[in-house]
Amino acid sequence: MLTIGQLARYVGVSTKTVRVYHAKGLLPEPERDSSGYRRYPAQAVVELVKIRMLADAGVPLARIRELASAPEQLDSALQQLDADLTTRIKLLRDTQRRLRKLAAGDIRYLPEEVERHLDGLPGLGFTQRWIAMERDLWIIVYATHPDIADTWFQDQTQALTNPELRQLYLACDQAHDLDPADPSLTELADRIVAASIHRYGAEPPGQAADATIAELLQSTVNASSPALRQLDSLIRNGLEAGGFTLRTGAG
User: Fold this and answer.
1) Is residue 251 assigned to a domain?
2) Which InterPro entries match (predicted)?
3) Whole-number pLDDT of residue 32
4) Residue 10 is part of which domain span?
5) Which residues of the chain are modeled with pLDDT < 70?
């Protein structure tokens, strides 16, 4: 008969661990003898070795207790745990690869096609300020609406191939520092309204974002400049007057 210290030492665990196994119902706790000590039989060594082996293999203590009452399920349970571990390893490796890319400065928040598009905007005359804002907007769109983000992106890139529409985008960029009362904003808004109705008719193509995200996108643009906030108001009024269905989108 063994004391708890002897049992723990023979199996290679601490007495605290043995007590945890008692508390979890994994190892029966013997009655105290006449001297007030708990004495463990040889079978306790066998049971403790089994528990330790399963625990060291990564089997949760709750599962060990279940398997103790249904040993015939041990093989299938271990196979499932092995499959779960394989999945966890893959996720950890994926996380490690992303961390290494981040550390190397080689991580993209946007699809490669969108990054190439943004990289080409300086050549079209857009300011770095405008490009940075567009990047943030596209990050929001692709994060919240991956199902429609490509449709919006293709619509914008197609617009930029049209010289007249490209000039409107450039004019919006250049309007950033204007006084909100500058009359040129009204003229620019009228041109954008006319171009939008001419291009889309009464309604823009593709699906709409939910109202919260749509307003978040537009508020991001408006917050960057009082002039752009005024331009947005003028455009909205003009589109509504023209019977156009408003849908806020990136760019």
Assistant:
1) no
2) DNA-bd_dom_put_sf (IPR009061), MerR-type_HTH_dom (IPR000551), MerR_fam (IPR047057)
3) 86
4) 4-69
5) 68-69, 71, 106-107, 202-211, 243-251
